[in-house]
Write a structure and sequence with these properties.
The protein is mainly β. It has a single domain (2-289), classed as Porin (Beta Barrel). It is 14% helix and 57% strand. An eight-stranded antiparallel barrel has the order 1-5-6-7-8-12-13-14. A hairpin with a 2-residue loop joins strand 13 and strand 14 (275-289). The radius of gyration is 25 Å and the shape is elongated.
């Protein structure tokens, strides 16, 4: 990873010096006017969360959510609280059920999330600018877990009734990035760009639940009676810091409008309750700037 950072720093230096040299040598070559000053833009794209963090929601209860009210229960513990077991038996139309030791998924992953945000920048010239942007994405992690019931086929025949059901985790992410963007001129209306900078990732855990025959059972609850549950009392938000790099293309229209297409890799410190790990997330985006 250190080699990648060094390579990117050298590449940015090369891009900057190349742009300066090209300005000196070909100052009057392009008809396109030099752009300088503040810019404001909109980002829209897709966000891909690292699947390692998704296992926080796999129902094993390995991590706490740091809430003053709700606790984290395993799937087996949650289905045994109060009258829940009887409710599940009715849903399954079975006299009994159990959660096998290998019921829990170990390879949960996030579905890609729609990302939207805005950016503010200052362009020194066509090929060099500083920027800050903030992008929001809603993520959902999903997989299957198993339940075993006493229904036919008869267990005495060496078979069991095993069923698969959904386990789901949901979270919101706010990604704030501040960095430098350098460019290599392709022609008078387009640049190839490279960007590098620091990042902040704020993650709000929204939910973690299992679905059985269309009914939802939350795993983060405060159990206060036979069939009485409360959810978390806090907003379950944590913030970590890291860095990012990216590349793409930008195109200029008239004297004010720009369109960019790029990919960004973010080395974030992902925090979910007591879980914390430095992971690489990525995004693909289209930006519109004035």
């Amino acid at each position: 990873m250190k080699l990648i950072v060094r390579y990117l720093l050298l590449l940015l230096c090369f891009v900057s010096f190349s742009a300066i040299a090209q300005d000196d040598e070909d100052e009057d070559t392009w008809d396109e006017p030099e752009r300088k000053g503040f810019t404001l833009g909109l980002n829209i794209g897709a966000y891909f969360g690292n699947k390692k963090a998704a296992n926080f929601y796999n129902g094993t209860g390995l991590y706490a959510i740091n809430d003053v009210q709700a606790n984290v229960y395993t799937i087996e513990e949650r289905l045994a609280l109060g009258t829940t077991a009887q409710t599940v038996q009715n849903l399954l139309d079975a006299q009994s059920f159990y959660v096998p030791f290998d019921a829990y998924p170990l390879n949960m992953r996030y579905n890609p999330g729609i990302m939207i945000g805005f950016k503010l920048g200052y362009r020194f010239k066509n090929e060099a600018s500083l920027f800050v942007d903030a992008n929001y994405a809603s993520l959902k992690a999903a997989d299957k877990f198993t339940l075993v019931t006493n229904l036919l086929p008869d267990p005495s025949q060496g078979t069991t009734d095993t069923r698969l059901y959904n386990i789901i985790g949901a979270e919101d992410r706010l990604c704030v990035n501040f960095g430098y963007k350098g460019g290599v001129v392709v022609n008078e209306t387009a640049n190839w760009t490279v960007e590098l900078g620091g990042s902040m990732l704020a993650t709000r855990m929204v939910d973690n639940y299992v679905e059985i025959e269309g009914q939802q059972f939350d795993l983060w609850v405060n159990f206060i009676g036979p069939n009485n549950f409360n959810g978390p009392a806090s907003n379950l938000t944590s913030t970590g810091y890291g860095w990012f790099f990216g590349t793409g293309f930008e195109m200029f229209f008239n004297e004010t409008y720009e369109i960019g297409l790029g990919v960004r890799f973010m080395r974030d410190n992902v925090k979910l309750g007591t879980y914390e790990e430095k992971l690489m997330n990525k995004s693909f985006f289209l930006s519109f700037t004035i």
